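Re: the pair you flagged

First of the two:
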Amino acid sequence: MKRLTLFFFLTIFSAITFAEIITLNTPNSQLIVKADSATVPHILYYGDKSANPTELENAGFEAFPAMPAFGMIDMIHLPALQIQFPEGDLNLDLRLADISHATTENAEIVSFVMTDKRHKFRLTLFYKAFKNTDVIETWTEICNLEKKDIVLKRFDSGHLFIDKGNNIWLTHFHGDWAAEAIPVSERLTKGVKTIRNTDGARNAHLDAPEVMLSLDGEPNEACGRTIGAALCWNGNYEIRLNIDNHDNYHLYAGIDPQSSEYVLSPKQTLTTPKLAFAYSVEGMGGVSRSLHRWARECGMMHNGKAVRDILLNSWEGIYFDITEERIIAMIDDIAKLGGELFVMDDGWFGDKYQRNNDSSSLGDWVVDKKKLPNGLQTLTDAAKQRGVKFGIWIEPESTNTKSELYEQHPDWVLQAANKNLNLGRGGTQVVLDLTNPKVQDFIVNTVDKLLSENPDIAYIKWDANASIQNYGSTYLPKHKQSNIYIDYHLGLISVLERIRKKYPDIVIQNCASGGGRANYGLMPYFDEFWVSDNNDALQRIFIQWGTSYFFPANLMAQHIGGSPYHMTGRIVPIKFRADVAMSGRLGMELQPKNMTEQELQQCRIAIKDYKQIREIVQLGNLYRLVAPKAFQVHPEPLPPAEQDIVALMYVTDNREQAVVFAYSLSQFQYQKPQRVKFSGLDPEKQYTLKELNIKAGEKPCTLDGKTFSGDFLMNNGILLPLNGDYASRVFLLN
């Protein structure tokens, strides 16, 4: 009876004919879609609100299928969707069956339901346009209505079509561990440009799942039509850019199909990750501000409007050498400096196998009583007595082959049949099989036990230091082994949803060998991410700059590291280190007892002053004023005629307050200082500059206390006093 009802349903839809132009609006942009029951939805236009459908068609603008399907487009075009049906057919013949509209408090949602003329299959394409920011999300639901499995060969989340582009530039973000998010800009030329990541468990090292397109030539921070695209997925992905034979531009983004052909059972539906687009005529900066607002206010990060605490993390201070005495001393140190949270990092756990290095004990989440004889209660009590919150490190998705967990459940790790394990960090680390519900339950119960037994834990650092090196699952059936890369992340999301349901208020940091999970696939469940394992302040300027294109400051955990820094050997003054860290969520990661009294005093000043500006920085609108020369499309030859500086600022929504950060990256005798023009201010308002984090024992610079109009600061600018190596300044504008 159900089959007859469904068949009748599809037949009724196929008999209805309709045509409709649908315009999805954000405050300053629009997406125009042509919907016709004789075919599939077509994208006519994406851009500002200056266009209407009649003018576009009269001007000869082409429309192109919103979801190009294999078998329905010329072979010269790239498909976004390809399905293999039970009899082996790879061709789709979709028709639009229905359109539905819905509204929420902050968005309009339109869904296009398509069915196939020859197969029992349903595709629903969604667009969600936000009312408070210039972002549109798109994704699909793919439903198998056949009696047998179908195989999804390609299943992009979305496709963007740009009619007759000219001189479009791509900016993508390349890097590696400890050198994340370096922007790379290049002019798009004919042919297919592919950006992808195949780590398996993390996807923001090497290439990140976000790109920007500058439609008017070389990228510009402040002006020019610009589109940003972010794939909200934590696993393997593929972004393709193509100029077709009619000089139209196409962007496709979705899960990487390599080794991920997804076997979809009868009546099963797969929802693809969201693909978010942002459009601005204010260049890359305008796109960033829209995406930052979307992240904070539209549910793309957990508790997005909250400001974050100032913390001390134990890792680079004592590494695995945890003892009760050392931890309590560090809690005491951060309390005396004015901090608000202490986080005990790796090395606190293990029973049969003690965690003294990275070769054992992951999965054995019991307190090491040799290191902490009185358990965690003594530490959380010590923190509470000093007015400081307590946090803890875990890495719940992995285990070591040297662990009680692995000895008891060797089948719980991802592994290829009849093949030796490939081992990761420490020569023993492997990834748990999160496709398995029992493994999911184990992780949820681990976190639940930790938090229920220690209710004063306020913060978790959730780490992920391993890629998927063993492609195989003892849980999934043989014919569904290619589902591993996807089902792993669906399992992880299920785990996080269950944890968040019970513990909505605990702050959780998303860490993955640094910035390996700086993406919007998991951020709805996390409060912040660790930007990079590299705490060298000079290199951090570059890493944080690139990360800021898509992520707001209250997502970016930025710590004051030690000096000389262990990765680079660089010796950097404490003020410079603090000023760099203050431009995001301020924290510390070092051993305070090894600091001089002058360094400790500078940290007290920085923490005190940061509390004045924390809300402006973490929730304000970002303007990148002066980029590092290394990031400019046509950098001047070095040594430069002008000083190589970096400047950025945050401005409140009402433009009443702002904070400016400026750093000198080089110092030559004959350099000319740069006049820096500010942005985002109220031209009619008078702003008084107040210098913050002044070097201990020194007076503020001559700009302190001076008043300028917003118009003057934006159109004329001021010379920032940045003299000497590692010179830096922070100003509050009131």
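Second of the two:
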Amino acid sequence: MTRKFDPILVEVIKNELAAISEEMAIAVWKTGRSAMMKTGDFATAMCDGQGRLIGQGYAAPFQLAFFIEMMPYIMKKYGGNLKPGDVIVTNDPYAGITHMPDVAIIAPAFWKDQVVAFTLAYSHHTDIGGRFPGGFSSQCTETYEEGLRLPTLKLYDNGKRNEALLETILANIRVSDEWLGDVEAKIAGCWRGEQEMRALLDKYGLETYQSSCDYLIDYAEKATRAALRAIPRGEYVHEDVFEDDGFGSDGVAMPLKVTLRAEGETLSVDFTGTAPQARGAINLPLSMTKATVFGTVKSIVGQDVLTNVGFVRPINVVAPLGSLVNPRFPAAVGGRAPLFFRVFDVLFRALAKALPERVPIPGEGGDVLHFTGQKTDGSPFAVMDIFFGGWGGRPMKDGIDGVAPMSFGSYGTIPAELLEREYPLVIDGFGYVQDTAGPGKHRGSTSIYKQWRFLQPGKVMVRTNRLLRPSDGMAGGQPGALSTNILNPGEDNLELPRKAHMHMEVKSGDRIYHVVSGSGGHGDPWVREPEKVLIDVKDEKLTVAAAREQYGVVIDASSFDIDWEQTAELRRQRLEPMAAAD
């Protein structure tokens, strides 16, 4: 007898699966060791028994997308050779992961002696061995330099831990106790997911669960095709250049090109014309390129549509082998983030040419300070502090300050108290930088600054994602301000070289001041409502002088009142020459 489709039951199971992923995330968060784990740099998700990502996950869209790329490698190697208690570990950039510090845990979930699901948990680790602490420097030339590559191995086999494998891994990690603590947290999350999956199967049975998975995947495909039909047919091209080969060489200008071909209910995303792979480690592995594409497309698809294998079916990605966005093995990829953020920017701007009233300017940030050394008791430490500037201007709203880009989901900012308690450093300052948001009818996000003071000598790497050119505006909006790195501000006041990844040694008492670039604005800034300009002045995001210069809004510096007569005259003087030119 064919089961009658029950839309309410499917919705209930969809939300129960989401709840399971949340339970997994709570287990990971509560038990993780590193500062990054405690503030959201991880993801959890679930696949069905066929290895198909079904969503909903505690994850950003691009994270779910590279889970989709990873699972075929798992199924090919272990699909018919799995037992209860198995746990698989991988960080292979050439098998679905995006660089080696990202370590994924995959565990099969059994119900009545049958694999019914896979639980997944991934996070970025503060070290993975290799030439440079952290494993994500751009200054490597092949993957063998970047750290310990784990090609989909069983860490647990039938419930028994592979001690030889674990000892080998830990012998190559600078902060082995923290690495192991984070891995065990992810394992705990996966086991929690299996426990909840068995309860779900006990409640609804295998047939109902499997048919619901099929429906959720098919629905995501249909909804994505419907969203793609809203894109006018045609080709939409955007080009840019990337200015760092991984070593900060002068005069680098590597072309980035994407062509979107809207073909009704399908979309082809073609990177032909993008530069060949770089010698340094700024290349994007194919999994990351696809994840970036899928994360961009998700911005125009309804929130209720799960990022699962059905969602990606109507999207075809063309990335020439040997290019920046699909390098040949053993190209180094650990420092891929600055290029990744730029590819996101190119994709959003190409999509905005097709849907100008819907697509925003992507956010800025993801800048990092990585600090390693020894504490006063001689024990090693490694800390990675990541923070974001915020969203760019949107067609109908301002950008949002100080948050991760919309495709990044759960990433947070590590509290100063946590950093200062766990590591030998002090946060001297953290906040907005005035007059840095890209002006627009809807302004971009302001720059965010952070200043670290080091209490112990050590090695520092600073990652900066916007180097020589600012985040441009759209539809008449203006660029945001560029990033800045200064060593010992006010004393040496040494402005550091503009490199994607900059390495240096610091001594006790040294300080680094870092500013994340501002985001571009959307629309003509001289038609922005003066009341909104005044709010930014009162919030100390904009000076009185910048309000006049950038927006044509005259504000009395003593009373903080708008001088409406002078504002109208100033804007009239600007508009008359423009009208005459037309």
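The longest helix spans residues 176-204.

-B.
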